[in-house]
């Protein structure tokens, strides 16, 4: 695959991406990284000759098998998609038809392209074996909702590789998956690309995933390439300040490091500042950076960066400072105590005699694969589910099992922050209106004090009072999640339950949220239950760690001890599957 001078514009004439050029050899995987809004997905879909509504490809070429697909008419382009170049989206549900059985969908791919006539059953058996899925009649008759998230994603990958394409674009296909499932999906992608000599573009915001998968890395910012090179060069000898700051925001499972939020926000399409787009956030910005737009400059074999200060960045360090490991909190009595809690959906035992204590001014991480019972445990504490057996105590008293049976004071004391900030905030209400609701619900202060209370909550999570009149769609993902946390903090709760609150965020926004939550524990004495599948994050934020496997608590202890000296087989497997930036 060869891409040259690719440019995608909005109908207003403002460019979304510009000056995009790179090569991907057969069997090679190019990792494309950058924050949300950097143009990664726009580039990925343009490689199939597609753009989002309101945008169009105005110049450039995308050559695959000697054909520039941007010069094809719609009928020819349709024939290329799926056969020569394919796409795997972030959400497998968008790639699979919920009304069709898995076998029917796999056959449809071959039927549309008139491929493998008379051999389709054999091809289905072969491709499902390639992605480590069964091909028996029972599996093929299942609908997508009857599969796990990892199985759905592997079916989507099987569909993409079905016709043995020349190139494939994978758009964050492991975001939201637990580390074990993610490891299986990454191994599948790596193996299939190598075996079938497929040129792959792997889009992600996770540099640890890139380190484990890609041979080359391309870093994007504000719609342009700011650094590109071999994996070793970009990850261990980064020269652009943006790449260096991204690397400092990555948590490590091996040691606790300071996670640095990149200050400010990336410019939106058509609103780049003059000169270097990154200069408003760059620690090395100088007067000339406002006047000259840097182009990619070669700094080694197959390594280039777009920066006017390359001499200064050569001496820079990308590694975040190491911090002391967190230790267990000493407290006479737990704030929350679960004793032999059980829960089941019919015959499916989700929690089996789970016991756990959480103290004031302590963060306890609850980790495990999807289906391990993490969210069920959290929802029992929040009163969204009632336990089938066992007891839950809060502040020394038995906790009523449902939210409806709890007093306003208890509801205020236990707050829940959901995984998806895009779905948990009402798009029809402004930030001020969203935060005013719990003020009114819990009778906090007088009506005349509401704005001051809302402004104080925003300030506590590092947001400006100027955002009060903004709507959720006007905010970045990290800002939305901070608003969701501010809403939970308005009533000054004693316990905050955070359910995978960083899984949909890029590494910089994630660093900001983790640092914020840790600050709340240290400075306000808040207790936090932090549900996650990312053990690297656990080391950064949690005093203690509790590991769940299929509803059973298999290991608990100080986070550093659990990670450095795991005693249970399952914990060791989770740690082994956690991607790290390694040479």
Describe, in plain words, how this protein is organized in 3D.
- By secondary structure, the protein is an alpha/beta fold.
- Helix content is 33%, strand content 23%.
- The chain has 21 helices and 22 strands.
- The strands form four sheets. The chain has an eight-stranded mixed beta sheet, sandwiched between helices. A six-stranded mixed beta sheet has the order 18-19-20-15-21-22, sandwiched between helices.
- A hairpin with a 2-residue loop joins strand 16 and strand 17 (397-398).
- Helix 6 (149-161) runs parallel beside helix 7.
- It is globular.
- The model has no long low-confidence stretch (mean pLDDT 91).
The largest sheet is:
8 strands, mixed
Give the number of DSSP strands.
22
Outline the low-pLDDT stretches: none
Q: Structural class, please?
A: alpha/beta
What is Rg? 25 Å
Give the strand line-up of the largest sheet: 6-7-8-3-9-10-12-11
Strand-residue proportion:
15-25%
Number of helices: 21
Name the helicity range.
25-40%
Identify the overall geometry. globular
Q: What is the average of the pLDDT values?
A: 91
| Straight-line distance between termini | 27 Å
Topology readout:
Blueprint lengths: L1 E9 L4 E9 L5 E5 L6 H7 L8 E10 L2 E2 L5 H7 L4 E4 L13 H11 L7 H11 L6 H4 L8 H13 L5 E5 L7 H18 L2 E6 L2 H7 L2 E6 L2 E7 H6 L4 H8 L48 E4 L2 E3 L4 H4 L22 E10 L2 E11 L4 E5 L6 H9 L6 E6 L2 E2 L9 H6 E4 L3 H4 L6 H11 L8 H11 L16 H13 L5 E5 L7 H18 L2 E6 L2 H7 L2 E6 L2 E7 H6 L4 H9 L6
Parallel strand pairs: 3-8, 3-9, 6-7, 7-8, 15-20, 15-21, 18-19, 19-20
Antiparallel strand pairs: 1-2, 1-4, 4-5, 9-10, 10-12, 11-12, 13-14, 13-16, 16-17, 21-22
